[in-house]
Amino acid sequence: MSARTITVVGGGPVGALLAILLARHGYQVGLYESRPDSRTTDIYQGRSINIALSDRGWTSLEKIGISDEARKQAIPMYHRAVHAVDGELTSLPYGVGDDAIWSVSRSGINEHLLDVADSEPNITTYFEHRLADIDFETATAMFRRPKGDEIVVNADYAFGADGASSKVRRLAHNLPRFSYSQTYMPQSYIELNIPANEDGSHKLETNALHIWPRKHFMLIALPNTDGTFTCTLFLNHEGRPSFESLREREDVEAFFEAYFPDAMDYLERPVDVFMEKTASPLFLVQVFPWSFNRKVALIGDAAHAIVPFYGQGMNCGFEDCAELHALIDHYDHDWDQIFPAYENARKPNGDAIAELSKRNFVEMSDLSGDSMFQLRKMIEAKFSQRFPALWTPLYSMVTFSPEVPYSEALRVGDEQNTIMEKIMAIPGIEEDWDEQYVMDRLQELAEATFGEGQ
Amino acid sequence: MSARTITVVGGGPVGALLAILLARHGYQVGLYESRPDSRTTDIYQGRSINIALSDRGWTSLEKIGISDEARKQAIPMYHRAVHAVDGELTSLPYGVGDDAIWSVSRSGINEHLLDVADSEPNITTYFEHRLADIDFETATAMFRRPKGDEIVVNADYAFGADGASSKVRRLAHNLPRFSYSQTYMPQSYIELNIPANEDGSHKLETNALHIWPRKHFMLIALPNTDGTFTCTLFLNHEGRPSFESLREREDVEAFFEAYFPDAMDYLERPVDVFMEKTASPLFLVQVFPWSFNRKVALIGDAAHAIVPFYGQGMNCGFEDCAELHALIDHYDHDWDQIFPAYENARKPNGDAIAELSKRNFVEMSDLSGDSMFQLRKMIEAKFSQRFPALWTPLYSMVTFSPEVPYSEALRVGDEQNTIMEKIMAIPGIEEDWDEQYVMDRLQELAEATFGEGQ
Prior knowledge:
By secondary structure, the first copy, chain A, is α/β, with parallel strands linked by helices.
């Protein structure tokens, strides 16, 4: 087989990883990124955006044969550090033992993968090449360069790995029978910062995801390796309080002091930043198909932009790559089979994590609120420890069980939900929750639903 | 109050009705339609497209004060005439007594409403004016005319009543926080024709909706006043059999003769028409918001394009108009209140009828198939006749109960579904369905769910 050529549009983490796996399968890959190279240009202007990686992400990287270099730069977060309004701190572990989600610098992992890509002889990377058009019949792409000139790139196949606002996907809108959905969440967000101590250490506990859950809004903070925390304030776009209602400086001050008094000791000019920044919207994108004419396909956020409340966005994109990696072998490079198998395998999982990520806003933002909700979590945790084969909590299935597809996690989670609603409806459950009969009833219901095991 | 001006984009049935109600509330209305006037130009080229109108449509027209002229041109269909493959005919009534859905000529009702609009002094109608752009801040619209010149129309408010492929809606895609979904159904469709007898009478029973349900596809026929039937073949776009798989003339012939042998005696050149026509896709569009800056709003299919399987598309659009009609009075022409009240009232109903219309393909196409499904309908019908306050079948709620919002019908229907699943799970239900204990159990479950009445 003569080496076939593939164009990858988008040099973010998913595009870079995709280029690597394709190159390692013998393809000649052109990797095209619209922005300058962050390794040689300070395009992030000192901003350190971080994201969560967890077992699905690590497992996918391993499957593709990426070293654990990235993990060395990641900070494990073993629990949620929940900050109540009065400053009281509660620790809620993510899983058991050393189960953790990992705070990763987006630019750090991206640059690591670009370095790996550079070391692959089959990959050529082009920065400052912005996609202008793509022919979905031939996979021929046209890119515009900074000086305005355009180049035409022919290839056997092309991938749109160009993120939540994917140009490849927007161009696909003109194709027949393309189903498309873009849904805005009621919340928008701004990023804030907690600087490091003078000695470079963290001002708050390092190995935790800090949350200030306030039911209809919340502040979170993820640690960076330089001692800072990147914080995100999620708040309704309209209503009260909201980004729309908080326009006057004194109202913003009052808002922060009323709801995040302890964080005010650490946050860097939060009121100034709030006044200066325009809040970014949160939206989900779902489309089908993900591939066109057995020539062009979407991957990562381009195929399934989700909201960040489950910390699964990049994990899901990396899983897309691992699936392709396996399918190229399985179908021995027959792309007429790979493309449909890829989209059929991944679409239900993309839809499931979209749904889960939407729902999890409530879960996160109400963490210290509803006492019945906390009680339910305790009962579930207790039962799960006693009957691990019968019950893995939904959060653990999604985050720590890469062998369980997202779609399966969603399905089982809904069945668990039905069961737990029955348990929580037991009269006197608030007093009796630790009694043996509650465990017995739960065991009976779980066995009736799941048989011997999930 | 000096007369305010409103631009209505789209002169179909919903646009024309909207123009009338706005004019009757004292507004100066410009009604702009991209096509020529069908009353003076033969734009339909002899095609008689018909649609179903039912109680919601008639009630809405009455509320707005439209005479029953349209009803005189409509043909009541009291039941489904189900054609089995062997030619056997089964009659399934739509409701009780003289409950009927009505076959209406789309051009007929449109022309009637345009005639009414012409008689309103406050309406000026412009044909062959195609919307080119609209300013969502000012409601200023730009229209292109046949010779290529453009006119700019200022108004206080504007409505997009421009149908399933609404240009107003597509222009709204560029607005911030506009949520949008376009979903293709697996089925596409072509229209066929059954000509009249030489004496102008119908070749099949007049007062019925004829269905040839074949599970994964179906043919339907609706009567026209000129003795013809307009038929629609709904068939998968791909797979077997499908519009894609049936490409050879002999395969198409074999398909029709295998599945619709009795219809072959009536259909006009079905194989030729199948070979000549390109199948049209079926898609649903859901968006939010429906109004922008208290200046511009969407209505009818422009706001909620659905599939035709519940016969509710135009009914829903007319209900939008009736709602606006009531809100203009209720809020005394305060559009800052009317627009949000309109979209909040109608959006849940648009979503509900979208869901119901999708689901109803299965219901229609499997009418003569699943015997358990038929049994379930019989049990429901029997129970409903005995306890009308406790149980109105979903189809009747949607079609014959305009006082029940679509969203309420969907919710109650889902609860009925849960109950009927329990009834159908009774061991031996196939033999026992007519026994008293089945009615008793159903009564017990219905009363537990709905109390004394729905």
